[in-house]
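Q: Predict the bound structure with zinc ion.
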Amino acid sequence: MKITDIMAYQIFDSRGNPTLEVQVTLENGIQGHGLVPSGASTGQFEALELRDGDPAKYRGKSVFHAIANVTGEIAPHLRGHDVFAQRELDKALIALDGTENKSRLGANAILGVSLAAVDAAARCRALPIFEYLAAGQSVTLPLPEIQIIGGGLHANRAIDIQDIMVMAIGARSYEEALEITHNIYHATGDLLTERKQRCGIADEGGFWPHVKTNAQALELCLAGIERAGYTPGVEAALSLDIAASDLYDEKNKCYQFKLESRTFDSAGFCAMMTDWCHRYPIVALEDPAADIDLAGWAMIQHELGKTVTIIGDDLFVTNAARIRQGIKDNLANAVLIKLNQIGTVSETLNAIKLTHDADWLPVVSARSGETEDAFIAHLAVATNAPILKVGSFARSERMVKWNELLRISNFLGSKVNFRSASSLLRSGMAQK
Ligand code: PGA
Ligand code: ZN
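A: Predicted complex:
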């Protein structure tokens, strides 16, 4: 089935910033769309998001060059291409760009086309995207990792830690995991209101609290779990995205907790998180060290990797070469997967496969700037990713993903498989 046209136009993400939507048209008239997300705490090794940088236009954030690259260069190049040959299509995009980090055409332009092609192909076969991507393999609904409190660059550094999340480790179904999380999210909100500590919500929908220390924010989330009627570590456990690259002072090789006016060297930072993991029911730590502090990563993985899921986000940036090196050096045991960090669907699938093959956990993730698109829910199901991270349990750009999984669950009916925490023994979650 041939692609006859590709076009793109500017839309806006959940922060109200410009991004692009790509539309692929097939010879039978069927159209597919790709909506591109955008990060705020981006890793320095990510593929390049092309923005116009003209302060007079959308405060420098417009994406008209990326759009022109889609319509002017990519469209003529891919016209006539078979939409079902996704790997060849993605290869053609990579070759046309010709740079290591997709900086010529822009990873946002390239990803929009790659996503739109998958959407068009699935529509052409009249299949949901997850079934098209799974190509006959069995599928599993992931365990949601849901933000309760937001901080870091998503909340003007109100707290230093970027995401304080819960995983409903006691849930036996996806629906039960959402029910538990719903109860905890609202109970935590009630607590914050009562204590007059509620400042609003952060970029991904979690509460933006007024607290004096990062540990207080963790304790608040634990109190929310209890207020909702659960036992921390039984029905629900904590997971944290430290986003440590944003806390790292490269010159002085130290981590800074601005909220507490504290500074740590790598060993001190590792010791503090180890202490947290002993004191609190924490099942996963994402980016506990900066992307350039490889010794810090090795230390944390050595200290905690047997019992805690250690997830590399900025460290790996969904890049197969970086993941392969991390596996070799034993730097973590899980990989955050974000499509726009690498820029094509095929490369993302490669990163997930590599992670699975190493017996590590792929964690499919949204960005802090999201759209109303639910592709990642399908990606997580199709690839049997054990965990899906989308942000909080509020705001439609987040809920559209959680709701899409409810639709998929309903669609699968009695055939549904759910990745309960008991099947995540590799990470030690079930022993907690
Ligand atoms: P980002 O945040 O999309 O702003 O990078 C998400 C994350 O760090 O996991
Ligand atoms: Zn992260």
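A: The chain is about 40% helix and 20% strand.
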